[in-house]
Design brief:
The chain has 246 residues and is of the alpha/beta class. It contains eight helices and eight strands. It is globular, with a radius of gyration of 17 Å.
């Protein structure tokens, strides 16, 4: 999804995106790519979330097709580029840690329990395509937002991060709640639309539109990589977070 496209079909746009400061520049160490929940629980068609939802009669064929064809390949590209660029890389995982799931956000306790998403189980870690490296942060969360149910703000703020770029799943759930929390805490926020996925195109677009309404920048993988390449080849000394073009 190209920058600024999430709200173009809206009949009336009362968003405040045009009033939100844009164009913030940052050193590589001040910019983080946050990879949301690309784990066996959330993004594998034979694990976790998929098994519970399938048992309830839900059709997740669109979701997993998008994860396989777009989300995973684009996230791989973003991760490789951020590693080359020298930016911060943060991974989030979701599930319980206590045996009785007592630490889990109550509204999600049932789905975690029924799927067996528990730290130390095969449901919990990243997909096989993704291996966090030494020097990259992992945020374990017990709910949707990596800020309110995980310690992402502590990790980013202590590291001096100002710009946050989000990718992963699910667009209108954990990606959106994390991005809005980041925005509310004063970070400059980007969501890479073609590196995210939801259960339908409509839900995906709706999630991005909500974020864009408030001034989060909606961008795409090629744009982010080209911007980072400009820093790497010396044409720019810092990464510039451009405002949404909506």
């Amino acid at each position: 999804m190209a920058s600024g496209s999430a709200m173009r079909n809206a009949t009336i746009d009362y968003g405040i995106h045009h009033l939100v400061p844009g164009g913030r520049e940052a050193r590589p160490s001040e910019t983080a790519l946050v990879v949301i929940d690309l784990t066996k629980f959330d993004a594998h068609p034979r694990h976790g979330y998929a098994t519970v939802m399938r048992d309830s009669g839900s059709d997740l064929s669109y979701y997993f097709a998008r994860v396989e064809r777009e989300t995973i390949p684009n996230c791989v590209r973003l991760i490789d580029e951020f590693r080359s660029y020298g930016g911060r890389l943060v991974w989030t995982r979701v599930g319980g840690q206590f045996d009785d799931y007592g630490d889990v956000q109550p509204n999600l306790r049932r789905i975690f329990r029924e799927s067996g998403s528990h730290r130390g189980t095969e449901e919990y870690p990243e997909l096989d395509e993704f291996v966090p490296r030494v020097g990259e942060a992992i945020v374990d969360k017990s709910g949707s937002s990596a800020f309110t149910s995980g310690n992402l703000d502590v990790v980013l703020r202590h590291a001096g991060v100002r710009n946050v770029v989000f990718c992963g799943v699910v667009t209108n759930a954990c990606v959106l709640t994390s991005a809005l929390a980041a925005w509310d805490l004063g970070y400059s926020v980007q969501i890479v639309g073609d590196a995210c996925a939801s259960t339908s195109q409509e839900m995906h677009d709706a999630g991005l539109a909500v974020a864009e309404y408030l001034g989060c920048r909606i961008t795409d993988t090629d744009t982010v990589i080209n911007e980072l390449a400009g820093v790497g080849n010396g044409s720019a000394s810092r990464y510039r977070l451009s405002p949404s073009s909506a």
